[in-house]
Design brief:
With 227 residues, this protein is of the alpha/beta class. It has one domain (2-131, 183-216): Rossmann fold (3-Layer(aba) Sandwich), CATH 3.40.50. It is built from seven helices and eleven strands. It has helices at residues 2-15, 25-32, 50-55, 67-73, 109-119, 170-173, 180-189, and strands spanning 38-42, 59-64, 79-81, 94-100, 120-131, 140-141, 149-150, 159-160, 175-176, 193-200, 207-213. The strands form three sheets. It has a seven-stranded mixed β-sheet with strand order 3-2-1-4-5-11-10, with helices on both faces. α1 packs parallel to α4. The longest helix is centred in the first third of the chain and has 14 residues, at 2-15.
């Protein structure tokens, strides 16, 4: 994505350093959990989640469309430049897939979910960590953390650069919004089974996390439950 190529250095050197704790870390740790095998991160960006994935026992592999972001990621995990809606990955070949704070960057995210379902092994786990559809978007003013203002526009579903801050990403590259039912229904339409959910951030959640899996063989427990 050309827009991310243009901000890759700023993202790595300024934006990430300004975050005391990466918003998706807690939810990713909780829902992915410990495991083994290949964990594919779609939209891996600069690869900041690779260490956590390794800490949990998985082997990270990242894909992203932005060469600028991957330039930073290459020192952190094996990478491939690819469109997440057309993954260069064999059917039923990975044990886990994660998507962390990137679904609003992907206009074809519903196609991405279908790709996730295609590449996961039976029983494989998928963890989606994204900005919360109900409380984050062009309709939400988070300028006062103690009193978030939600304006009309949540139900519209759109791409926008409107933002309450010029220190974030949406005002630079834009973001796509889907209402919560549309997003969750897309998991089901892709053939994924919803398993667990999480929210992080206060006073209104910033992050919505979802764990889903591909059906295991008869009598076999999903990988996400083998703890």
């Amino acid at each position: 994505m050309a827009a991310y190529d243009e901000i890759a250095d700023w993202y790595e050197q300024e934006f990430l350093r300004a975050q005391p704790v990466h918003l998706g870390t807690e939810a990713l740790r909780d829902l992915l959990g410990t495991g083994s095998g290949v964990c594919l991160e779609i939209g891996c960006g600069t690869g900041v989640h690779a260490d956590l994935v390794r800490e949990l026992g998985w082997t990270p592999l990242g894909v992203d469309l932005s060469g600028g972001m991957l330039r930073h990621a290459s020192a952190r995990l094996p990478i491939a430049r690819a469109d997440a809606a057309r993954l260069p990955v064999r059917d039923r070949s990975v044990d886990a897939v994660v998507s962390v704070l990137v679904h609003t960057d992907m206009p074809e995210y519903f196609a991405v979910l279908r790709e996730v379902a295609r590449v996961l092994r039976p029983g494989g786990v998928f963890v989606h960590v994204g900005v919360h559809p109900c409380f984050c978007g062009g309709f939400a003013d988070r300028g006062d953390p103690a009193a978030v203002v939600v304006r009309p526009g949540y139900l519209d579903g759109h791409w926008t650069k409107e933002s309450w801050t010029d220190q974030g990403i949406r005002d630079k590259v834009g973001a796509r919004h889907w209402p919560l039912p549309d997003l969750l229904n897309a998991f089901l339409d892709a053939g994924l089974t919803l398993d667990r959910f999480g929210e992080t951030g206060t006073p209104l959640p910033i992050v919505l996390a979802v764990r889903a899996f591909i059906g295991a063989a008869a009598g076999e427990e999903p990988l996400s439950h083998r703890r």
